[in-house]
Structure formats: structure tokens, C-alpha cells
Amino acid sequence: MGSIFNLSPFYIAKGDVFGKEQPIILVLLDITPMMPVLEGVVMELQDCALPLLREIIATDKEEVAFMDLDAAILVGSMPRREGMERKDLLKANVAIFKSQGAALDKYAKKTVKVLVVGNPANTNCLIAAKSAPSIPKQNFSCLTRLDHNRARSQVAIRCGVPATQVKNVIIWGNHSSTQYPDVHHCVVNMSGCEQPCFDAVKDDAWLKGDFISTVQQRGAAVIKARKLSSAMSAAKAICDHMRDLWSGTPQGEFTSMGVYSSGNSYGVLEDLIYSFPVQIKDKTWTIVDGLAINDFSRAKMDATAQELKEERDTAVEFLGV
Ligand code: LMR
Question: Which residues belong to the signal peptide in this entry (predicted)?
Fold first, then answer.
């Protein structure tokens, strides 16, 4: 996650996330052995001479890092290597999120917005939320915007249009290879005319086959090629997610986010962080309810929920939370 750590603060300090008028105090937390490296990041941020950046606090202490925070982006975790699934990181990483959740509970503002990125992101987010009982669960979300952007781009490339012409893809479930990228409600603007994705792409076999597996496996494909996990695209997705959380989603559009399931939407089990289509207004997300779900989608939505349930049960047993 090293490069995310460098890139996201840059975009944030530049005004791409919280707006061009919002002065920024950046707080960077890392483990003690990484403090000299973090100093390098601080130097570079200073050298960018960014007008909105008022202060940079670099620390290895949670009580300093989480004090009075308005927004927290939790990226710190062991990244996966080639051949691993994200859930293989469960035992290595989940303890970090228990500790950071507890520190948020103790030190951050109760209005803090917490975005969990470190993998397995959904389950880490659930553990952080459970470890911060005084902060509303509404304030926690995990990153599936990277998958959402991947799905959008795959359709756009196929149709020969910019990604901005593709709207309302959905990522359901886990940020893992069981996630379900769904285009049944997606529309593509082709030469000024909005068409359902299936009509625009004209290749149902691809949309129900290789498209889905490409998005599901994209993180692994990037790791195989780079020998490192995604950095630039992950940083961009973090910024997209936080910006929408802060400023809202555009009229008529939804995005995908891992959010707390209270058991009332789409038959998804309660007490999971599950990626749903959401709309955001006044810094509050709402699940877009009432979309038609066919049998093909239902089976895939249930399979990814089942994986999340197993991850949750393993994590809860491991941590005793
Ligand atoms: C990604 O999707 O690129 C990240 O979650 C990193 C990973 O392990 O795949």
C-alpha cells in the first residue's frame, strides 16, 4: 500500500477530495520502523507547495493520529502477494482494524467518516465499526469503488466511449473474487443517446462471463503484472469514494460502497459490510432499493454474502469481538 500512502495525501491536499476551498491538515500514521520513510513523504508534500495544505502531522501513535479526526482512510495492512486471496490476510490484518476502531472510538469526532481500504476490506471495516461502538455504523464504509471503476472502464472500452459515459454499474458484496459486478441497471451514453448496457455492448455472453471474471480478478492481474498491488487506481478510487461521501453523488447516478447491512435490503444478511448501490446526500449514504434482481444476479449476490459471513465468523472468533 506504499504508493497509495503517497498518492492519496497528494490528491487530498490538492483539493480533489474535500473541495478547492477546504484547508487541509494531513495526519499520517505509520509503524515506528517506517518513520524515516514517512519523513520523506512529508518532505515531498511540503515541496509540492500546495495552497490548501496547512499542516502535516506524521506519527506512529494512534492517540495522536486519531485525535479529533473528521475523516479517516485506513490503508495500513499487509498487502497480498501473487497467488493469495484477500481473505488470506484476515488473521494478519484484522487485529490492526480492531485497534484502530478502538482508537477512533476514543479520540476521533463522533461524526468522523471512516473509509477502510486495507484487505480484506469489508471484514476489516466491520471489525473497525464493531470496535467503535460510540460512532454510528453509518459512518463506516469500505472501498469497492475500485471495482466499480474497473467495471465502468471495461464496459466503456468495449463500447469505445469514455468511462464517464457509463453510469450505474453495481458492485455487490465482497471486495474479493466473489464480488458481483452487475450491469443490469447500467446505461451507456452512445452518441448522445442513453442505452441499456446490454443493448450498447451487444454481447450478452461477454457481459455474463468474461466481463464479470475480469473485474473479479483485476486486483490479482495487477499484482501478477506489477509484482505489487494496485496503487494509482486504488488512490484514485479512494479519492472518488471520499469525494462522493463528502459532496454527494450526481443526480440520477449511484455508486458502489461497502456499507453496513441491517438486513433490510435485497435480502442480504444483517451485520455484514456488503457493497450495495448507494446514493449520497448531506454526507449520508442510502442504499438504492427496489432494483429488479433476476435469478442470475440473486445467486451471485448470495454467494458473495456467504463468503462475507464466513469471513466475519472467522474474524469474530479470532479476535473475540
Ligand atoms: C485491488 O483490488 O487491486 C486491491 O484490493 C489489492 C489486491 O489485493 O487486489
Answer: none
Active site residues: 175
Which carries the bigger pLDDT value, residue 137 or residue 88?
A: 137
Is 119 assigned to a binding site? yes
275, 174 Cβ separation under 8 angstroms = yes
Domains in the chain with CATH codes: 2-142 (3.40.50.720), 145-216+248-315 (3.90.110.10)
Given the CA of residue 222, which atom of ligand 1 is nearest to it? Answer: 3
Question: What number of other Cβ atoms are within 10 A of residue 37's Cβ?
Answer: 14
Q: Is the CB of 148 under 6 A from ligand 1?
A: no
Whether residue 20 has pLDDT greater than 90: yes
Determine which helix (DSSP H) or strand (DSSP E) holds 286, and give its type and residue range. strand 284-287
Is-above-0.90 flag for pTM? yes
Instruction: Check the annotation: does 226 bind a ligand.
Output: no
Tell me how far apart the alpha carbons of residues 255 and 258 are, in angstroms, rounded to a whole number.
10
Instruction: Name, in order, each residue with C-beta under 8 angstroms of 263's C-beta and a sequence gap of 6 or more.
Output: 269, 270, 271
Confidence band (pLDDT; 50, 70, 90) for 5? low
Q: Which atom belonging to ligand 1 lies closest to the Cα atom of 117?
A: 5
Lay out the sheet containing 140-142: strands in order across.
71-74, 113-116, 140-142, 255-261, 272-281, 284-287
